[in-house]
Design goal:
heterodimer, A: mainly alpha, two-stranded antiparallel sheet, 75% helix, globular, B: mainly alpha
């Protein structure tokens, strides 16, 4: 184990090329996170073409740099201009911007920066401790369990639907369908090629992804003539000196808030589809509720800056836990990273840490290192950020569109891929206009082939369909899928309704069943705790119903 | 009962599913044991058809989409709304169509310059700026991919002959 960790450490820290790539990646991430209209996902997606010529670890390390940098980049724009660069820094604006306006911009930036750093470090430790343990479970998985796991991951589409479940599901299914075009991986039979030889290879993941996400976003950004021609931000901040020492002291004095917010971030990251955009608001809310200075929130309270920034960076570690341990993406960024692994012929899955230990531990170390780069680059990136904000959107969009074409071509050296990107870009643009969320479609494209492959393997071994519900892990994931599908209805249900009161305890009780079936002592204990807690909640909630 | 944008989209999706399901019957069966190649796509398409049907019913039960009847739908507004996106589409198609002749370097520069000028305006100062931006940015990207990442980008017939 230690020799693998040392090798992974050497492949990151002792390799100047990898370090250099991470440095550039982190800088690019900070800028992508800082510029309103650009997202972290877009930054990671646009980094992907550069990773073809790199080794798998260099590629992943670079993307991790963008990922980590992106979370902290958002704090620059939200503090200096009051406009959140990314949805994951919305809550930082509540107290960060007033703190800057009260004449403490250096301290505000320092608090945000170091909270991000500490939050990331806490989640990195949890990632290293938890992911390998969870990954051992992967060794117990058969194709039935894999398939059910992917079905569970696909139910994330419901949560990603943004209020319109029907359209979200349609988008997810369109993604699954797009993944079936071309020769199937089991029999090599051509499907939906309509006589075109180019279609036989299917639609490569990257052109589809860049088309759906980046291309369509850029078209939306230049849609409005006036907005496209004006600089990115009307308000512009000024270069300030970050007060590092004082910020660190303030954060360490508020360590309870830091840890609570970080754990909220990690937990939210582990949950499929619940990313930094949720965690920063949740952490802010909890910090406000727990604070004795509640009335100061919204006026530049330190805790109001620490909580969202620690949480959003910790979310990255949580999302990586799911990706590393079970091989399923929790959000678009981890979906892109899984896509990057596939480009390097590494099949992600629950045995990933066992199969590719060097790469896995390399990811852990890169995640740590990226946080140091993030702190080191903040002052420099602040200057670049202020320059970038003066560029009109149409200039950025035109240049990036050309870059997308070059990047996509680099994947297989075929012009057909650029046409695919264009085609999916047009589809993505109109889907957005018609109110279809794009994230489910991307998940469908990523997971479609894996789902089919495991279903084929399962049916090849046995034609007994009951195995999907008699195997404990498969049953567990199918139940999780059902719970996940129902979750949005629970969110919308009235708090005093019977459904709302029964949802959580019944979910706990139901989930204990497959854990009991697994038989191992630890899981039996967990199952018993789940049942007892579920029954307790059930009793409390039903008795409160009776009294009303 | 009403017809709105979602109704039209749902009908289009149902047609799409119909064509694809019909096409799935042409998927060859090599006769190997196990799951047929058409099985998974058929399941996906059936689910997609069901969801499209749900969308159709929901859209018909919903109130009339005001957008369809409002001034937003008049042709001038639609043109203005999609003008910049249409320019991007058109320029991209031209860029791809002429890629074999112009190559990535010249084609890329012309694409960025054309797009910048069409979106940004035709004043002399701007045109000069656009030209500089397009040459520098595409030149840098082309160099990174060609020399840094060793990707052989399309050279184009013009440069080849030259």
């Amino acid at each position: 184990m230690i020799d693998i960790i040392l090798q992974a450490f050497a492949s990151i820290v002792l390799d100047p090329v990898t370090l250099g790539l991470m440095l550039v990646g982190t800088l690019a991430g900070i800028l992508a996170g800082a510029i309103p209209g650009f997202t972290i996902a877009m930054g990671v997606i646009l980094t992907l073409p550069f990773t073809f010529g790199m080794t798998a670890i260099q590629g992943l390390a670079t993307m991790l740099g963008v990922f980590v940098g992106g979370f902290s980049g958002g704090l620059m724009s939200c503090m200096l201009t009051g406009i959140p660069g990314t949805p994951s820094s919305v809550a930082t604006t509540f107290d960060g911007f007033p703190l800057v306006r009260s004449g403490r911009p250096g301290l505000a930036l320092g608090l945000g920066l170091w909270s991000s750093f500490f939050g990331g470090m806490i989640s990195a430790v949890i990632l290293v401790a938890l992911a390998p343990q969870l990954a051992f479970l992967g060794l117990e998985f058969g194709p039935w369990d894999y398939f059910s796991l992917i079905i569970f991951a696909l139910t994330i589409t419901v949560s990603l639907s943004g209020g319109n479940i029907t359209k979200g599901l349609i988008a997810g299914l369109l993604g699954l369908f797009a993944a079936t075009v071309g020769e199937d991986e089991i029999n090599g039979v051509a499907r939906f090629t309509f006589g075109f030889d180019e279609f036989k290879q299917g639609f490569a993941f990257l052109p589809v992804l860049i088309g759906l996400f980046a291309f369509s976003q850029l078209l939306t950004d230049v849609e409005d003539d006036k907005r496209a021609k004006s600089p990115l931000m009307s308000q512009s901040g000024s270069v300030v000196k970050v007060e590092h020492r004082q910020a660190i002291l303030i954060i360490l004095k508020r360590w309870v808030n830091l840890f609570r917010s970080s754990f909220i971030g990690i937990f939210t990251g582990i949950l499929p589809a619940a990313g930094g955009s949720i965690s920063n608001i949740l952490a802010y809310d909890q910090a406000k509720k727990a604070s004795p200075n509640r009335s100061n929130f919204g006026k530049g309270e330190y805790d109001g800056v620490i909580a969202p920034e620690a949480a959003n960076n910790a979310t990255a570690g949580g999302a990586l836990i799911m990706m590393m341990a079970l091989g399923i993406p929790g959000d678009i960024v981890t979906a892109v990273m899984l896509g990057a692994l596939m480009i390097h012929n590494i099949i992600p899955g629950p045995t990933f840490i066992q199969d590719e230990p060097l790469l896995a531990y390399g990811v852990f170390i890169a995640f740590f290192v990226a946080h140091f780069f993030m702190v080191g680059l903040q002052a420099f990136s602040l200057r670049i950020f202020l320059l970038v904000t003066k560029i009109p959107m149409y200039v950025l969009a035109s240049v990036i569109l050309a870059y997308c074409a070059i990047g996509v071509f680099a994947l297989h050296n075929v012009v057909f891929d650029i046409w695919v990107m264009f085609f999916f870009g047009v589809i993505g643009y109109f889907m957005k206009k018609l109110g279809f969320p794009l994230a489910p479609m991307i998940l469908g494209v990523v997971l479609g082939k894996l789902a089919e492959l495991n279903l084929a393997r399962a049916s090849g071994i046995s034609d007994d369909l009951l195995l999907f519900i008699t195997r404990p892990w498969s049953l567990f994931f199918l139940l999780m899928a059902v719970i996940s599908v129902i979750f949005p209805f629970y969110q919308e249900a009235r708090k005093d309704s019977l459904f709302s009161k029964l949802y959580v305890p019944m979910s706990m009780i139901v989930l204990s069943l497959p854990l009991f079936l697994m038989g191992s002592p630890v899981r039996m204990i967990v199952a018993t705790i789940l049942v007892l807690t579920g029954v307790y909640f059930l009793y409390k909630r039903t008795s409160s119903l009776k009294t009303t | 009962m009403s017809i709105n944008k979602d109704t039209i989209v749902a009908i289009f999706l149902l047609l799409f599913c119909g064509i694809m399901i019909n096409s799935s019957f042409d998927i060859e069966d090599p006769g190997y044991q196990g799951m047929k190649a058409s099985f998974w796509p058929t399941i996906v398409l059936c689910l997609l058809s069901i969801m499209s049907l749900v969308m159709l019913v929901k859209s018909m039960m919903a109130s009339t989409d005001s957008n369809l009847n409002s001034e937003n739908t008049n042709s001038q507004n639609v043109f203005l709304k999609f003008k910049n996106a249409s320019i991007c589409f058109l320029m991209f198609i031209l860029f791809l169509g002429f890629l074999d002749y112009l190559g990535m370097l010249i084609g890329g520069v012309l694409f960025v310059f054309g797009l910048l000028t069409l979106l940004g305006g035709f004043e002399i100062k701007k045109i000069i700026n656009h030209l500089i931006i397009s040459i520098i940015t595409i030149g840098i990207m082309w160099s990174i991919f060609t020399f840094g990442l060793k990707v052989i980008l399309p050279e184009g017939e013009i440069l080849r002959i030259w």
